[in-house]
Automatic annotation (TrEMBL):
Gene Ontology cellular-component annotations: chromosome
DNA-binding found in the keyword field: yes
A molecular function GO annotation: DNA binding
Name the UniProt record assigns to this protein: Chromosome (Plasmid) partitioning protein ParB
NCBIfam families listed in its UniProt record: parB_part
Membership in a protein family: Belongs to the ParB family.
PANTHER family: CHROMOSOME-PARTITIONING PROTEIN PARB-RELATED
GO biological process, any: chromosome segregation
SUPFAM superfamilies linked to this entry: KorB DNA-binding domain-like, ParB/Sulfiredoxin
Span of domain ParB-like N-terminal: 42-132
Keywords assigned: Chromosome partition, DNA-binding
């Protein structure tokens, strides 16, 4: 392992693949020789290759696949896929499903492949890391893949962040997406809302409030900043009741005023903004003495 060199794919993938093609000279051999040692490229019939059961990507863009298939049909497959031997005369894909699918579309009979030795945990890790680094999974697919690695590979979040070369906070933010209602997760998956929107929604604990904000984002095309303002307003005042005047989200400037007042009066001051310069300030008190204290501060 001392010969391994870090690559742009991240430390996790290069370690798992052992960087054998960088260490050993590569030569192409027919699969009938039975060569399975790292560093050699075997030409394997596509019909002998099973898909990776640990593949985290569930959707492939058909137009993009066709473009790759056209390129493969003209230039051939430049980058071999990676497989492991799974039985007599059969192989299981480790990485490169997009290339495999495009090769099928292009009508190839055989495909060049590196043959590796890998257990199920390594299969899952390789498939995940390859896709994150090269294919940009949508946020929900990444979150589900991270969750699978934690559960199936018995990894802690610190270990997972090291495997995929990402900060622990990034890993945590992805996994938190799985706490959102299914309809919100679907919007993230379909790119109808962004990660920024999702993080703002996660500031609310109650499902009904999360769903309300999600609906407002889709209905009014709220930006991430406007969504954050709406979340702050709901945290303070709850969901507006039907038939009441619409309460505008508390802006950054009004939020600062509210925080300063709360600090001055040592109580949870609420600034309600209703638009067109209208609104109210609510200063709650807990007892007669508390009211007297507040009135003194107001020079009443």
């Amino acid at each position: 392992m001392s010969q391994i060199r870090k690559t742009g794919l991240g430390r996790g993938l290069s370690a798992l693949l052992d960087d054998s093609e960088r260490i050993m000279p590569v030569r192409s051999v027919p699969v009938t020789e039975g060569v399975t040692s790292p560093g050699n490229i075997a030409h394997i019939r596509i019909s002998q290759i099973e898909v990776n059961p640990f593949q985290p990507r569930s959707e492939f863009d058909q137009a993009s696949l066709q473009e790759l298939a056209d390129s493969i049909g003209t230039q051939g497959l430049i980058q071999p896929i990676t497989v492991r031997k799974s039985g007599s005369g059969s192989y299981q894909l480790i990485s490169g499903e997009r290339r495999l699918r495009a090769s099928r579309i292009a009508g190839l009979i055989e495909i060049p492949a590196y043959i590796r030795t890998a257990n199920d945990q390594q299969m899952l890790e390789m498939a995940l890391i390859e896709n994150i680094q090269r294919e940009n999974l949508n946020a929900i697919e990444v979150a589900l893949s991270f969750q699978r690695m934690i559960e199936e590979c018995n990894l802690k979040q610190e270990e997972l962040s090291d495997r995929v070369s990402k900060n622990r906070s990034t890993v945590t933010n992805y996994i938190r997406l799985l706490r959102l209602p299914p309809v919100v997760q679907a919007s993230i998956r379909d790119n109808n809302i962004s990660m920024g929107h999702a993080k703002a929604i996660l500031g609310l604990e109650e499902v009904d409030k999360q769903l309300y904000v999600h609906k407002e984002i889709l209905k009014n095309g709220l930006s991430v900043r406007k969504t954050e303002e709406l979340v702050r307003t709901i945290q303070q005042m709850g969901i507006p009741k039907a038939g009441t005047a619409k309460v505008e989200p508390v802006s950054f400037q009004f939020q600062k005023i509210q925080d300063d007042l709360a600090s001055k009066f040592a109580t949870n001051v609420r600034l309600k903004v209703q638009g067109k310069g209208k609104g109210s300030i609510e200063i709650p008190f807990m007892s007669d003495d508390d009211l007297s204290r507040i009135l003194e501060l107001l020079d009443w």
